[in-house]
Structures are given as structure tokens and as C-alpha cells.
Amino acid sequence: MAERGQQKLNQEATTLDLEEQLKRRVDEETVARILLAIATPPNRREEANPGDLSGNFDFWFDGGAARTITGWTEYEFEDGARDKAWRSWFVS
I want to staple 77 with a disulfide (CB 3.0 to 4.6 A). Which of 5, 37, 64, 84 is the partner? Predict the structure, then answer.
């Protein structure tokens, strides 16, 4: 009996976790915008313009900025989104 009750609690916790994950997920348009900005940063520049994000960045672009770390680039966007783009060292 106790085992069945624990199974029900585990199932409810999993359902709640899934519901919370769905609420917090990033919509497809935002994902597409971020991927496009990483692939081809719009109006990339080496110095910040007035109104750009402030911080220790290596380059800025319309809607965000980025810093290059050995092996990856960290992107920050005006809407608070963040992402890392990993570089591949393999040549085919």
C-alpha cells in the first residue's frame, strides 16, 4: 500500500515538473532569433554604441553583445537571453 502511494506521489511530482518546464520554455521565435544572431550578428562592431549593453564584451551587435572565451563565445541579448556557442576544433 505504501509503495503504491509513493508511486502516485512520484507521478504527480513528474507531472508538476513537466508543467513547470512547459511554462518556462523558450518560444520558437526567440530560439530562431538567437540562432540567427549567433550565425550572423547584425551590424557587428568592435566598440559599443550609445544604448548598447554595457560590460566586458569583445564585440557588440544590434540586440546584444558577446565575449570570446577559449573554445566558445558567450552571447548576451537585450531581452536577457544568454547562450554559448561552442567552437569545433576538428577539420574534416
Answer: 64
Say what the pTM is.
0.69
Reply yes or no on whether the pLDDT at 82 is more than 70.
Answer: yes
Classify residue 33 by burial, with Cβ atoms within 10 Å: 0-12, 13-18, 19+. Answer: middle
Cell numbers that stand for 32 in this block: 530562431
Q: Which whole-number Å values give the CA distances from 48 to 39, 40, 41, 60, 78, in the listed order?
A: 20, 18, 14, 6, 13
Of residues 19, 85, 18, 35, the one with CA closest to residue 58: 85
pLDDT computed for residue 13 by the predictor: 58
Cβ 75 vs Cβ 37: under 8 Å? yes
User: What does the pLDDT look like over 18-60, one tens digit per residue?
Assistant: 888 888 888 899 899 999 999 999 999 999 999 999 999 999 9
84 strand-pairing partners? 74
